[in-house]
Amino acid sequence: MHLAMEVLSASRRALVAALALTLTACPKSPSRTDSRDDTSGDDTTQNNRPRVEVKQDATANAALAQARTQAQGNPDKKQAAEAYLSVRKAYPATTAGQDALYNAGVLYFESKDYANARKTFNELLFENPLYAQAEDAKHKLAVSAMEVGAYRDAYQTLTSLAERAEGAEKEQLLKEAARAAEGAGLFSQALSSAVKDAGDAQTPEEKTAAVQKVEQLVEGRASFLDIARVQEGLSPSNPAWPVLQFKLARIYYHLRDWTRLEETLQTYLREAPNSTFAPQAKELLARATRRVEVRPRTVAVLLPMTGRYQPIGEAVLRGVKLGLQGSDIELVVKDTQGDVNKTGTAMEQLAFDDGAIAALGPLLVDDTKRAALLAEELQVPLLTLSRQEGITDIGPYVFRNMLTNSAQARAIADYAMNVKGYKRFAVLYPNIPYGVELANEFWDDVVSRGGAVRGAESYSYDQTTFTGEAKRLVGRYYLEDRGDWAEAVRDVQGENITDAYRRRKAMEKAKSGVEPIIDFEGLFIPDDWRRVSLVTPALAVEDIVTNACDPRDLERIRKTTGKKDLKTVTLFGTNQWSSPKGRSGLPELLERGGKFVTCSVYVDGFFVDSQRPATQKFVKTYRDAYKETGRDPGLLEAIGYDSARMVRQVIDKQRPNTRAAMREALAGLKDFDGATGRTSFNDKREADKQLFLLSVDSKGVNEINVDKEKAAVRGSGS
Questions:
Q1: For a pLDDT cut of 70, what percent of the chain falls above it?
Q2: Residue 575 near residue 602, CB atoms below 8 Å
Q3: C-alpha pair distances (Å), 441 with each of 37, 446, 557, 684, 688
Q4: For the region Disordered, what residue ranges are annotated (predicted)?
């Protein structure tokens, strides 16, 4: 009996895809439909595991999953917290035990039981300060401490968190810290007293001691609000005035409040030109002024040129230099070393010291976040080369030119539905963030276009056999829910076979006769080519025909199977399917996957053998420039080349003299014909371009002329 699965709502669908990350801890439903619809479990990943010696334990994981299920169905959060604590008590030295402790703390916090929340989070952080959710636990611990009147503890925790935070998060933490400090009565009164002592000092020794006390309170103790409150209305004649005024200036510099910074420094230098901090104040004022001094033909690039990520940095830089070849644009290379702090320093240097009108990069996620925040604060146009989704949401000075997961999912869905005419799909994906994210993106896009996802199965990142997943996709795993299987069993039982061997053989024959339920036309596999070459043979075993794009192949399969009505499935993939050439000269995907990967289609951001003129021109230029390496360019080189040429084109044609003008010109870039496609920036400053759709046949990989195929579809009226 066919068990159709209706498309889930967007929120439930996200949970199904995220469930892949906790499948080992969650019980499986014994039906094909349930295996697709199960939305239990939380949305966790394995990227940020605690770095303490705790054990994974299957029994503990199962207990945690059961507690989670109970908690989700229990409106009484305190009772739900007790369910988690029972897991913690039973399995204290396991990762599940620590997760249970954290979840209990969250529930106590949400139910405003701050005393128990504080106790629970204290226990967790004492045992494992490096727990994956330690930052969140510390924040909730601090808020809980405030709510029970432990302001001193709250203040210490909040200020510690604020030191490592940025942007709006940092501002919020500072506000909470100020509240805690005020509640504790810690510094404001002491600072006011020290300032008064400085003004009342009668001897040089008393004056020096009072000013030193003010400096001690200001540096790392008094909050911004305390300092501002004490400084307001204070006479410049007070010996402590320069200390407070310069501290306020440094705070404004950190907050990128340029107007108040300049006003504060100018007042400082006017009222205390000979004070201890005057030279530093002059330098800081000059630095703030230099932020708007631009060298219109200077461009910076932020890349990891040393360290573990050096190869990818060098690849991008080769493309960037090629893109600027023959130009008088000065390129300033900043080595981020894959380090967030060095990235931040590099951004400040290129803005304040180098006068760059724009910057390219970085590549890595954390580096890009830091660079993007600073680009927005310093108002420097930044063309990032990161895959991080949503990075341009940080602000209008942040652009992105890189192949993203969402762009790949859209391209595949568009081709499959608008060109091939498919409406029903399945997804088979690895339970890692990359696989889950792409599964989500593809699912959303298919549903938004009026299609349906009929099945979704996940597998472990290190898995090498896929029999179970293939069986579940076609309804052959949970046979007890199949009406045709039940009928076959009754037929065998009706034969009254007494011999055990013959009975077993009869059951095996009946099982092999159960037809697969192939209710999808396309199967999306967001994984790398090595895994795909292992997955596809398992699909063939379950009679999923994927290599029938040639009518002759289709006829041959009909004769082999004896089935006239064959349901064929097209495999779709991402740029991770791109593989190097093997010994035969064919891509290794094809060498390893053989006939099972032919007729597949995958997407990429660059194709070295493309017939697009701009791509061919780049490939030839690259081969001529770097022929000593003997290597062809890849996506990184092509993205670096196009990004540099985009900036070059804007500078040469529109000649912006300010960063604001550069930003406007870059935002208006349309139809740039590059190696990675004809590119325009959309209203979110994301690079829109037609990606490369690639098909696999027995002779290799070929680019699909999507426009030509779409025209053929329109011409046929389908």
A1: 90
A2: yes
A3: 18, 9, 34, 18, 17
A4: 27-53
